[in-house]
Amino acid sequence: MSTSASSSATGDDDDDSGSTSTITAETTTGRHELKGESYTRTKGGVGKFIDSVTFRVGGHSWYIRYYPDGNRDESADWISVYLYLDGAGSEDDGGGVKARYKFSLFRDAAAAGDGEAPPVLIHTRTASNYSFWSADQHRRGYCRFIKATDMEEATKGGGFCIRCDVAVMKETCVETTMADSVTVPASELNQHLGALLDSKVGGDVTFDVGGEQFTAHRYVLAARSSVLMAELFGPMKENTMSSIQIDDVEPRVFRALLHFIYTDSLPEIDGEDEPGMAQHLLVAADKYGMQRLKLMCEAMLLKHIDTSVLATTLTLAEQHDCQGLKDGCFKFLRSPGNTKAVVESDGFQHLRSSCPSLIEEMLVKVAP
């Protein structure tokens, strides 16, 4: 994978001159599988874990840590899985490693009595971005990967496989400079606006969110959201107030919302917190009319779809007019066995009572 940027300047004599910088991002990929003959035989209590053997990807050693009964009390009814970097990064890596990972759970169909059928994918979760791994941050994964009851139902007492796909990135920059050329750097507007938000310099409006105070700039907010434009500069009471109370958004979600408004990007979100943050941010994005952020949240939620959360996600998609998210949910339901598991989930009763018309649409879209 590679990306490049170039710039050029023309002098009075109309001779073209310029320079080109090419950034080559070398990526090495690999995978490892941790297999078990039976899920119930691996259970040993909360906090008890099983490690895979170490495996090499991108010049580094890794291993999978699997908690059949969850890694702590809060995840006692779940299976927890983590990818560990075995040792800190080398000096060539700046003491760290940039990597991305994906966990997938398969059922051994043959062991479950389905003849010579290939393994069946039960559940998968993918990290949204490349993360920085170091001696201080040497593990990443999910404390709530899949519910234990869903695991037992899906494996049917047979064998299973947890597969971890790893991609390790190492960036190299090669630059050629020509005489009499002018190099135009990439835009730093998002960084400058992000620094302005953090510094609070020139802030002229404060938001009180769950007891936390957030200082911002009216013109920046208005430029990014038509809803905020109306609230801050239209014939509404907020346009004369220096402090505005927000009661329906959590502080951590509002902080991420402001970060997006100023930088057009999301802050780094811990993998375990990503689905919940995406749900809350989607609601906030819909409230403030921020379509790009809303679509980014839909994409994040689709990466974390499984039978335990699909009904809740489908309800959210219906309530906030997220057609792409709905279509992704319907596609997931077409996979064998998924519809039955979703109907038996806790969130399905809420879906049926809050969005009865969606049940009819679901039957039409999912029916063979």
Overview of the molecule:
It is built from 13 helices and 14 strands. It has helices at residues 39-42, 148-155, 189-199, 218-224, 226-233, 251-263, 274-287, 291-303, 310-319, 323-333, 338-343, 346-354, 356-366; strands spanning 2-10, 16-36, 50-51, 55-57, 60-67, 78-85, 96-107, 120-126, 131-134, 139-147, 160-176, 205-209, 212-216, 243-246. Helix 7 packs antiparallel against helix 8. The model is unreliable at 1-13 (pLDDT under 50). The radius of gyration is 25 Å and the shape is globular. The two termini are 39 Å apart. It has 3 domains: 27-169, Apoptosis, Tumor Necrosis Factor Receptor Associated Protein 2, Chain A (Sandwich), CATH 2.60.210; 187-301, 2-Layer Sandwich (Potassium Channel Kv1.1, Chain A); 305-367, Alpha Horseshoe (Serine Threonine Protein Phosphatase 5, Tetratricopeptide repeat), CATH 1.25.40.420. Strand 1 (2-10) and strand 2 (16-36) form a beta hairpin. With 368 residues, the chain is α+β, with helices and mostly antiparallel strands. Strands 1, 2, 7, 8, 9 and 11 form a 6-stranded antiparallel β-sheet that branches. It comes from Sorghum bicolor (Sorghum). Residues 29-172 form the MATH domain. Residues 1-10, 18-28 have a biased composition (Low complexity). Residues 1-39 are annotated as: Disordered.
